Amino acid sequence: MPKAVVCLPTYNERENLEPMLRALGDKDVRVLVIDDNSPDGTGELADRLATELGYVEVLHRERKEGLGPAYLAGFRHALADGAELVLEMDCDFSHDPNAVPRLIAAVESGADLALGSRYVPGGGVRNWGLLRRVISAGGSFYARVVLGVKVRDLTGGFKCYRRIVLETIDLDSVDSKGYAFQIETTYRALRAGFKVVEVPITFADREVGGSKMSKAIVAEAIWKVPGLRLAALFGRL
Questions:
Q1: pTM to 2 decimals?
Q2: What is the mean pLDDT of residues 140-154?
Q3: In the chain, where the domains are located
Q4: Which of 39, 175, 192, 220 has the most beta carbons within 10 angstroms of its beta carbon?
Q5: Which residues contact 134 (CB under 8 A, 6 or more apart)?
């Protein structure tokens, strides 16, 4: 069995799911679909595909609770199943499945956490308007300055973790629900002394389906960042 597991959270991703799973079929990974009881039938489609594609497994959750809880459930499942490397990525093709081997290679070459980065040389975004570019780059800059770290794409969600990272950063205390989850997990890895490497990627806007971004998700990221910094200063992180 492949030692790498891709955690793929889904909520109403029926149109993207099958193309993504088939695109990951030759990447020497297992794929764990984590479905939050999607009303569009994504979970049922995942079950059917799992019977056909031997590298696919499905974890069903009762309700939608946010990106963070879905990933945490997937991480725990993958670790219990013996995964040595655990990846996270979006199902909507914002993250290119062809970049998965590069993230794995970065960890196999010495990184503890490989982060697909839009904001290092060679990285970038595609099909984004000016406002979204400003918000995304500004959010990463804000988090980097407040937390005092050098990682340029702290909000990035295309990652490959070495098993020991997830075993060390105390998943039970991670409470971010939205995209702040990406900031929190990377910051915890850095605080624990792990080596984080940024691998350049091109992030493309989804072509099918609707974005999960909301004002609440943005607000959580804004207040969560100084909260993490304070927790670190007081030795609680």
A1: 0.92
A2: 94
A3: 4-233
A4: 220
A5: none
